[in-house]
């Protein structure tokens, strides 16, 4: 039986805004809420329900299965944002595969934009001569995914493709298109199903648009240093301020 919250908000209604009355607008780095208030209260509207998400994953998993059936390949999950999506995706691909992880952080100070600090990078044995699918939560500017594809090819991968949960083509800064994608979304600040803001909201079972009053007063310039694709915080804050 759907909860009262789901009956109201999955049908397109807006959330109760009473808790924002008299809310101080001092800038801070993490969302602040009373212990008894759920993260659902920070969502302006639901964009993708659980049912829609699973339907999209089933479709993409079928496409990947058809493309890679009979070959050896490795799914590389880009941390942290893609962990939820990647885990649901691979369980719907009924052919042998291997799983690896990579973490990429964009340098924000002292170097050119686009330089990456890579962690948990698979070993050469896991890369050389292998077919890889890089899985990420969101394709935004395209810079990080483009750089990762080049990095894996330079390490000897025979073929590198990409699969993204969400795609924001309006935000693209480089000429890059994902090989597989579940959904295209408008240029909103989205959270849930692995996507975060200040480390929170990854556990939401749906994708929702975050209330503007959450992010437009809490992001300090220069604070963010995580992956450009999975981290909308810097880009969205700059858009809001400009």
Could you characterize what this model shows?
The protein has 242 residues and is of the alpha/beta class. The protein has one domain (43-242): Rossmann fold. The protein is 26% helix and 23% strand. The strands form two sheets. Strands 4-3-2-5-6-7 form a six-stranded mixed beta sheet. The chain has a three-stranded antiparallel beta sheet with strand order 1-9-8. The model is unreliable at 4-29, 107-113 and 218-242 (pLDDT under 50).
> If you consult CATH, what is the topology?
Rossmann fold
> Distance between the terminal alpha carbons, to the nearest Å?
44 Å
Class from helix and strand fractions:
alpha/beta
Name the beta content range.
Answer: 15-25%
Q: Tell me how many strands there are.
A: 9
The whole-number mean of residue pLDDT values reads 77
**How much helicity do the residues have?**
25-40%
CATH architecture: 3-Layer(aba) Sandwich
> Which regions are unreliable across 5 or more consecutive residues at pLDDT < 50?
4-29, 107-113, 218-242
Strand order of the largest sheet: 4-3-2-5-6-7
What is the domain total for the residues?
1
Write down the Rg: 19 Å
Largest sheet: 6 strands, mixed
SSE series: HEHEHEEHEHEEEEHH
CATH class: Alpha Beta
Tally the helices: what do you get? 7
Form type? globular
Summed up:
With 242 residues, this protein is α/β, with parallel strands linked by helices.
Keyword list:
242 residues; alpha/beta; Rossmann fold; six-stranded mixed β-sheet
């Amino acid at each position: 039986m759907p909860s009262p919250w789901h009956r109201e908000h999955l049908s397109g209604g807006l959330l109760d805004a009473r808790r924002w009355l008299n809310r101080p607008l001092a800038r801070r780095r993490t969302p602040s809420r009373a212990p008894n208030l759920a993260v659902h209260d920070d969502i302006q509207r639901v964009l993708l329900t659980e049912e829609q998400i699973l339907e999209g994953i089933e479709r993409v998993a079928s496409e990947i299965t058809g493309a890679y059936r009979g070959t050896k390949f490795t799914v590389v999950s880009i941390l942290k944002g893609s962990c939820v999506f990647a885990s649901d995706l691979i369980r719907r691909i009924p052919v042998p595969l291997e799983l690896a992880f990579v973490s990429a952080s964009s340098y924000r100070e002292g170097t050119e934009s686009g330089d990456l600090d890579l962690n948990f990078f698979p070993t050469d044995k896991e890369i050389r001569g292998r077919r890889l699918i890089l899985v990420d939560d969101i394709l935004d500017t395209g810079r990080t995914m483009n750089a990762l594809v080049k990095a894996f090819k330079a390490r000897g991968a025979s073929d590198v493709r990409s699969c993204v949960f969400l795609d924001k083509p309006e935000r693209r800064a480089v000429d890059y298109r994902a090989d597989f994608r579940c959904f295209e979304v408008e240029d909103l600040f989205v959270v849930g199903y692995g996507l975060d803001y200040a480390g929170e909201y990854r556990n939401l079972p749906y994708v929702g648009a975050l209330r503007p009053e959450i992010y437009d007063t809490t992001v300090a310039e220069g604070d963010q240093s995580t992956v450009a694709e999975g981290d909308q915080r810097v880009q969205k804050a700059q858009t809001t301020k400009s």
